[in-house]
Automatic annotation (TrEMBL):
Residues 408-428 are annotated as: Disordered. The chain crosses the membrane at residues 25-52. The lineage of its organism: Bacteria, Bacillati, Actinomycetota, Actinomycetes, Micrococcales. PANTHER family: ALPHA/BETA HYDROLASE DOMAIN-CONTAINING PROTEIN, XAA-PRO DIPEPTIDYL-PEPTIDASE-RELATED. This is AB hydrolase-1 domain-containing protein. It comes from Arthrobacter globiformis (strain ATCC 8010 / DSM 20124 / JCM 1332 / NBRC 12137 / NCIMB 8907 / NRRL B-2979 / 168).
Length: 428
């Protein structure tokens, strides 16, 4: 026993014990570090998945983030005092939804603004539904009108056959002999009401106008997976709308799209079997490049860029789609029209505010720069997201009218003289 004890306490044995102790601490550090990395990785994955789901899943309830402080009645006229926000302090005509969306009012010009009290007094032009006088909160929007009749236009309710059933639409008639129809496509989280802002200028041009609904917008049948395709699936419903228009006498169409509706229009012009009948497109604050938009929203929500990219990967990967709930991956690369600029062969007018807080305007400007033959870019200022018409309806309608008149002018055959030019004088 004594000899054994002596052997364990020799200098070499003592050194071996010390090395073993260091090895244990090193191993422990590796395990702890690996566990922390795994936890960090799991946390990043969860955040990326949450981000992806937020982008792809239709919101059932809009946050009532606008405070309604008071309503003043003067005879039959109404005024509303609102908490001053970057949106409510912009001049123009807007919408105020309240009572969980059951109430809808059209809000007009600013009457007074108190920066000290952070309040703004605005004119109430119309209350379409609900009781604004009892409302405490709501949300601000650009869908200024509720029905075509509010714009002074007659309409017909129509049903368009789409995957899973029928999608309701409004058909505003045009000239009896019109061969060109307009088809209007609203944005993410909105409805066809959003498109009524553009209805008047189309009517003035004599075009029949089809304001449509599409999957997951609360009016059309929901997609099988209940997820947005960001344009990669919704375009099929617009293709169905073109088929409807053709069946009713249209020979060609002009597509209008707001925000994600712009992305849907671009996909339709790219993939539809009817793409040859799409004469032109008018896009308001369109999503030209989803990668750019998603990176912007990751930054807005203080999500690390690497996590945001991981979320994008989940959307586009056949394995990740199982986590996001998508029936099929979303190919974000195919919806990057800055990279695909030369492939766009449909004349397109893009109207986009340079202070758009939701969809950055730079891809719109870049698309026009890369394909000036097909794309005309008209920047606005002070309109924020998809509210260019609201901020300046006269300019918006003037731009759309003049550009469309040019695009819809009779096409000349090669060698045919311009009808606006005098006939050449023939020598005697």
């Amino acid at each position: 026993m004594d000899s054994a004890h002596a052997a364990l306490t020799t200098p070499s044995a003592t050194k071996g014990n010390a090395m073993t102790l260091r090895a244990k601490w090193t191993l422990g550090g590796i395990i702890a570090g690996g566990t922390a990395a795994a936890l960090l990785g799991a946390g990043s994955s969860a955040l990326a998945l949450y981000f992806a789901r937020r982008v792809l899943t239709p919101a059932r309830v809009r946050p009532a983030d606008q405070e309604i402080l008071a309503v003043i009645r003067e005879g039959r006229d109404l005024q509303v005092i609102l908490a001053a926000t970057p949106e409510t302090t912009h001049n123009g005509v807007y919408s105020l939804f309240f009572e969980a969306g059951a109430g809808h009012a059209r809000i007009g010009r600013i009457l007074s603004y108190s920066p000290a009290e952070r309040t703004v007094l605005r004119e109430v032009e119309a209350v379409y539904s609900g009781n604004l006088e009892t409302a405490g909160r709501g949300w601000w929007g650009g869908a200024t009108y509720q029905h075509p009749s509010d714009v002074g236009l007659a309409s017909e309710d129509v049903a368009i056959e789409v995957e899973g059933g029928t999608a309701p639409g409004w058909l505003i008639p045009g000239d009896a002999d019109a061969g060109t129809w307009a088809i209007m496509v609203h944005g993410r989280g909105a409805t066809r009401q959003e498109c009524l802002r553009g209805a008047r200028v189309v009517h003035e041009l004599g075009l029949p106008n089809l304001l449509v609904s599409y999957r997951n917008d609360g009016l059309a049948p929901a997609a099988f997976d209940g997820r947005y395709g960001l344009g990669s699936t919704e375009w099929r419903d617009i293709d169905a709308a073109i088929s409807f228009a053709l069946s009713r006498g249209a020979r060609e169409v002009v597509l209008f799209g707001w925000s994600m509706g712009g992305a849907i229009c671009l996909q339709t012009a790219d993939l539809s079997e009817h793409r040859h009948v799409i004469r032109a497109m008018v896009l308001d604050a369109p999503v030209i490049d989803w990668v750019n938009v998603l990176a912007h929203h990751a930054e807005l929500n203080r999500i690390p860029s690497a996590v945001g990219r991981y979320g994008q990967l989940m959307m586009g990967h056949k394995v990740g789609r199982r986590l996001t709930g998508l029936a099929a991956p979303v190919d974000l690369k195919s919806m990057d029209w800055v990279s695909r600029a030369v492939e766009l062969r449909t004349p397109t007018l893009i109207i986009h505010s340079v202070d758009d807080e939701y969809v950055p305007y730079e891809p719109s400007a870049l698309l026009a720069e890369k394909n000036p033959e097909m794309v005309t870019f008209e920047p606005f200022e002070g309109a924020r997201h998809a509210k260019e018409w609201n901020a300046d309806p006269v300019r918006w309608e003037g731009l759309a009218r003049a550009w469309l008149q040019q695009q819809l002018a009779p096409r000349r055959n090669p060698g045919q003289p311009d009808p606006g030019q005098p006939e050449p004088v023939q020598p005697a």
